[in-house]
Structures are given as C-alpha cells and as structure tokens.
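User: I need a structural model of PucR C-terminal helix-turn-helix domain-containing protein from Nocardia kruczakiae for a docking pre-check later this week. Nothing fancy, just the predicted structure tokens so I can convert them on my end. Input:
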Amino acid sequence: MVKLDRLINIVSRYGARLHGTVVDRAVEIHSVAVHDPIRPHAATGDVFLAVGAADLAEALTLGMEARARVIVARTSETPDARIRQLLDDRGPALMTVDPSVSWSQIASVVYGLVLEGRETESGRGPSDLFALADTISASLDGPVTIEDQLSRVMAYSTAHHDTDPVRSDTILGRRMPDRVRRFFEEQGIFAHLARSDAPRYIPPAPEHGLHGRTVAAVRAGRELLGSVWVSGREPLSADRARILQEGAHTVALHLLRSRVSADLERQVESELVIELIEGSPDAEAAIGKLGIPARDLRVIALQAHAEQERNAGILLAFERATTGFGWSRLGRSTLFGNTVYTVLPAGDDPAPAYRWITDIAASLPAHMSVVAGIGGSADARELPASRQEADECMALPAATSPAPPCYDTAWDRVLIQRLRSMASTGRLPSRDPVAQLAEIDERAGTHYLPTLKAWLEAHGDPNTAARTLDVHPNTVRHRMRRMRELDFLDPDDPAKRTAMLIALSIHTG
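Assistant: Understood. Predicted structure tokens for PucR C-terminal helix-turn-helix domain-containing protein:
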C-alpha cells in the first residue's frame, strides 16, 4: 500500500511524465496489474502497466477497463487533445515513461512501492515492526521494545503490563535515557551485543527505575543493526530465550528490507542533488524529478561531528535529513564527502533554512556538534553558486551568534575570507609595508600593526580605533604620526589602504 502522491513522485524520478488532472493524490494504492495480451481483460489493479500496448489510446482503454487509478505507458508519444480530454473526463492519471527505461525497472519500482507494506512513522519501510513487537511480546508475556544501534526506538509492543519508568521514558523520548544507557555501558551490555547473539539478562535496578530486562542483538551477518528488549523481573527460560533470538532474526530481515527501500530512494535523490549543486545543463529536468520549485531555492551545507564516533555524526545527520518520503519533506539532500547538502525552497526569507538546521540538530544525540552554512537564494541553474556560498559560510570562524551564518547577512565576512584566500595563494611581497611593520613591532616592541588595522577598519577615525584598541585617542594619533614618518608606508593612498587591510587580515588572522 502506498499513497498515489508518493508513487507519482518516485516514478517521476525515473523519467516518467504525468498527464491528466489527479484529483486526490492522497488516495491509497493497493494493487498492480500488468497487461497480458493472452488474457487482456483478466487484470484489474490500481496501477496498470500497459506492457505491449500499441499506442497511448490502447494503453488508456486497457487501463480504464482494468479500473486503474494510474496507467503507466512506456512510450515517447505525447497525448493528443482527445486523450487529454479522456483523462480529464474519466479521471485516471497517465504516466509516460521514456523507452530507454526498461519495463523490468519500472515494474520493480512500482511493485516495490505498492507491495512493500504500510509505512513506518519515519516514512520508510513496513510498519509491521510494531505488529512484530506485539507478536514477540505475546510469545514472551512481556513488553517489548525494538531499538536501533544508537538506542533510538523503532517499534514497541502495545502491551502495558509490567511497564517500568525506564520503558515509559524510552518510548516517550523515542530514545533510551542517557542515564540508563550509561548504566548499561557500565554493565557491559553494549559490549555483549557487539560480539554475541545470545540473549543477556539484566537484573532489576530500582535506583534507575528498571524492573529487569532481557536483550538480544539484531544482526545482519556481522553488522549490528539494533536490539530487542523484553521487560521482565526474571530471566527467560531456554525456550523463551530461543523465541527471542528468532524474533531478533525476523526483525533483522524487516530492517534489511526497509534499508533497501530507503537506500533506493536516497540514491536517486542524492544523484539528482549532486547534479544540481555541481552544475547541470538540464537543471530544470532534475528539479522536476525532485518535485520542488525551480526558483527561490537555497543550498544548506551541514556537518555533524561526534568524538570517538568516526563518520557516525554525518551519517546520522544524512539519515535524519532524508527521513520521510519526498512528498513529505521540504528539502532534497545528498551526502557529498563529509557534508550533507540540502536544496531547500526558501526564497528571500532564510527562516525555513534556519528551521531546517534547528530540526536536524535537535534530532541528533546531544553529544554531537553541528556546523552549517546557508547559501543565497537561487534558481535551479544558480545552485552551484548557492552551494559555494553555503560552504564559505560554514567555513567562517564561529561567531557570537548561535545561529549558523547565512550569506544574506554574512556576505561581508565571506568576501573578506575570499580575498584572504586569494591573497594567500600567491607569494606576498617580502618587503611590503605590513611585513616591515611586523619587523619593527618585534624589534622595538611597538604596536604599529594592530593600530594600523584598527585605524583602517575605523576609516581613519582615531576615536573609534582607540575604543577597539582600548587606548586613548591621542595614543592612536601619536602612533599614526610616527608611522607616517616611515618612508615605506602611505596610509593616504586608497588602493594601498585596501591592500594593506587585506594583508593585515591574513597576517593577524
């Protein structure tokens, strides 16, 4: 089962074009039918794959006979006025796919979407993890929680008997409380899960609000995917421990199935976003496949770091950025190097970009730090420039404001940073005024460099420069008078003032 809106968005990413007026894109799609020339009238389904249809007219006739809501035809033919009128009158959606895309690929995507199962809270994969948690709970007569490798809740049983405070806090917070996680680490529970599939019993710990637990690893091959926790004041019998192990194995299969579905969509989205931020000659087509507007966009660059967890932060940030299907998210994201780039409809107001960063940061564990930058507003073809601006904002030194830099307001700092970078790529003159003043300061203990920098930044106002240096204005006047006596310095030349200010920025950092 899948919503029509999601089906249209995903199939569109494979080059399909939608024709006709779709009245209710929130309608649920439950079945798929494929045209069979031997038994042409036998198939009915919500999605009709018009394999072998001679033209669009035949595809439309067969699809309406199958009572389909969506008709998929593999053709380069464009609907004529008669077909468009039929679509408007009769209501089905028609999607035409370029002949370069194989029917096997189309069918695999459509069948995968429709028959995958109900969606999870995160928007991906089968929601029967909750049903599985209920099944394991009934077999073991205890409340069950299924968690991922970062102790985040993926599913839990609905049984409420013998629920302790730890389980309630875990479900409400969607993650195991940090104090309980630290307790389990001290008990060696996570080390056990990393190396063994055998269930491990944890005795009650009233001081932590814990009645007792038995936990088993959820593993695919050697990779730890998560864990299954069963509440109980006593250890499980051998038979029940075996049931828990079998349940953990079934959970692993569900998670792998969900991962395949999620990775397929992420891969398609990621490739299109990379194409846009690197510069695409067909940017409008890529934007159309992503299902976002072609104008008023911004690129967000984000990095997440965690001590002693190499790459964990950025991988988790990418997972959170792509949680939910395309139709349920504002932005489209990719993981490129060690940075998550998101193309977000924001326009002249960067507020949606700030909210997006705030939401991502809030979804990450507290020990992970986030740095980000927001590029300027751009249309589809200008996204490479917005991406560069986002990178440059992210690279700016930390400001006093907790908000990440946005190019709209940080353009001056970005420009200075660009000038500094360009100036530092070549060799600076060894006898330029800044270098010579630095030698005098080091030899004579003067303060010419900081005074000249403050004076230039104050546009020659000694009072403003004095406040910056925390000295008397007469001190600034005296130092500037002494510097004017040096034959290599000409602070009254506008071009030299600009060049010296850039050189001072490089020299003083």
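Before docking, keep this in mind: Confidence is low (pLDDT under 50) at residues 117-127.
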